[in-house]
Amino acid sequence: MIVIHGHFYQPPREDPWLEIILPEPTAAPYRHWDERISYECYEPNAILGNYAWISFDFGPTLLDWLRRRRPHVYKAIIEADKVSAERWGHGNAIAHPYYHVILPLVDRRNKEALVAWGIKYFEKHFEREPEGMWLPEMAVDYETLDVLADYGVRFVVLTQRQVRGGAVGGPYKVVTKTGREIYAFVRDERLSDALSFGDVAEWPKLLEGSVKERLTLVVTDGETFGHHKRGGDKALANLVAKYAGELTNLGAALEGLGPMGEIEIIEGTSWSCPHGLGRWTRDCGCDGPAPWREPLRQTIDWVNDVVDAAFDEWGKKRGIDPWALLRRYVEVVMGKNPAEFLRELAPNLQPPETLKMLEMERAKLAANSSDAWFFARLGLEAGISVRWALRALELLGNQAIIDEYVERLRSIKGEPAGDASMFIPAIRGPLMAASMALASHIVGYTVEELGPYQLALNGIKIKIVDKRTLESWEIEFTEFGIPVLKKAEGS
After folding, report:
1. Is 478 exposed, middle or buried (0-12, 13-18, 19+ CB in 10 A)?
2. CA 136, 140, 145, 147 torsion: positive or negative?
3. Which of 110, 308, 404, 428 could cysteine-pair with 106, CB 3.0–4.6 Å?
4. Is the dihedral of CA 204, 206, 210, 213 positive or negative?
5. In angstroms, rounded to a whole number, what is the distance separating the alpha carbons of residues 468 and 204?
6. pLDDT for 250-272, tens place per residue?
7. From the CB of residue 92, how many other CB atoms can be counted at a distance below 10 Å?
8. Bond from prior residue into 29 cis (ω within 30 degrees of 0)
């Protein structure tokens, strides 16, 4: 019995204010990295039908971009889950926390929000309850497993160095410190690394003589199949063809095999850093020197504390559990009308204020995406985190805190030059939307909607409404083309 699992994921590349992906020159000749990797990996694997034969997870931020921009790929992924369920009695897809956050590095309330959002997202798109959930970077501790068990998740995937004794295959039972039970599948590190880093020409021979009586589990980044490894999509198709009769998925393996025994996890470990969680907290040596990692971690942790304290205080003053409301807010993130959401769940709360607090928390969660710390350079991925954190603090609305955040960023030095404040755009939000709308108007195009902003142009004035928070502004351009931003009353 063989399971090949692909972890497919990209960070939330959208501009936090405009909610559209701006050009990323390093992805040339494509406009940004989602486009490039889709062409090299996601699309060819859909054409070859590979998703119907391998276990997989798709990060919600990536799957949502595919749904909007590559609907044929999105449909192939959803259909593959249905086809595999008909073949093996269980779908190939497993769930993923909404953002790719290192779960052991955030508190239980944030873990629960990320897990709850990931489950709701999965249920909407795959039209079934998830059986398993991918842990970002496989980062694990007992509290994370406890949260997953509370939410009905039956299994996770780990790697050998994360379990005592280096067990492989599975499934194995894990008992949390509160007595909850969950199952763990353990990837074969030798085989998985050979597929991830070896020659694709050797893939068809990879499993010869290695297939276990119970379960052989190979797990890698999904981008290995065509992006990291050129020709990996076709090599995967050849591998699938050779072993089709022995392939299955994790849900079917859990039902068909039953537990192989009980194991203990090693807390604070991951699959991509031999130093535990060092890659996301300090200059551990992974990928080269990165002295900026620790101060950026400290800065984002500071933002977390500031935002969560304000969120708690806001909920206390209004006599509500704000975290319960946040766990449901994914409905708005997935497209529900925010005004309708509040009418149903919080009719006594003021819409703009309430939506700003919930959007503040969403931005903070996005700022914790693990990619910011993954590479040694202070680059594109770190900038994503910096901007989402700024968006969260702007929604909080305390200028002194924003100023302190910018000062903290200036002290975070990176290579080859500059500091973390370089990622802050000079013009952003409604001003950027207004400038883009005015530029379009000058050349003869009328822009009435730009990302989450609705715009109405009247002479030199532009009225803007943010559909996320229901805030509104009026922007007037002076004779010198300088925009003056005024908040509309009651927003």
Report:
1. exposed
2. negative
3. 110
4. negative
5. 49
6. 999 999 998 999 999 999 999 99
7. 29
8. yes
Rounded CA gap, 147 and 181, in Å? Answer: 11
Q: What residues does 445 pair with on adjacent strands?
A: none
Rounded CA separation 359/58 (Å): 23
3-state class (DSSP) for residue 337 = coil
DSSP 161: G
Residue 481 pLDDT: 57
The pLDDT score that the predictor gives to residue 382 is 97
Give the pLDDT band of residue 418 (cuts 50, 70, 90): confident
Question: What is the residue type of 122?
Answer: F
- C-alpha–C-alpha distance, residues 421 and 409, integer Å: 5
Spell out the domains of the chain, with CATH numbers in brackets: 2-272 (3.20.110.20), 293-423 (no CATH), 430-487 (no CATH)
Q: For the chain, how are helix, strand and coil distributed in percent, rounded to 5?
A: 50, 15, 35
Can you read off the two tokens belonging to residue 33? 């990295």
Q: Which residues contact 64 (CB under 8 A, 6 or more apart)?
A: none
Tens-place pLDDT, residues 328-376: 999 999 999 999 999 999 999 999 999 999 999 999 999 999 999 999 9
pLDDT at residue 212 above 80?
no
Helices (H) and strands (E) in the chain, counts: 19, 11
Q: Within the chain, what is the greatest distance between any pair of CA atoms?
A: 78
Strand order in the sheet with 461-466: 449-450, 453-458, 461-466, 472-477, 483-487
CA dihedral of 412, 414, 420, 425, whole degrees rounded to 10: 160
With contact defined as beta carbons under 8 Å apart, do 142 and 160 qualify? no
Structure tokens at 216: 């052989």
Please give the pLDDT value at position 449: 92
Read off the amino acid at residue 444: G
Confidence label for 490 from pLDDT (cuts 50, 70 and 90):
low
Q: Is the pLDDT of residue 213 over 80?
A: no
CB atoms within 10 A of CB 450: 19
DSSP assignment string, 196-263? HHS-GGGHHHHTTTT--SS-EEEEEEGGGBTTTBTTHHHHHHHHHHHHGGGB--HHHHHHHH----B-
Q: What angle do CA 341, 343, 348 make, to 5 degrees?
A: 125
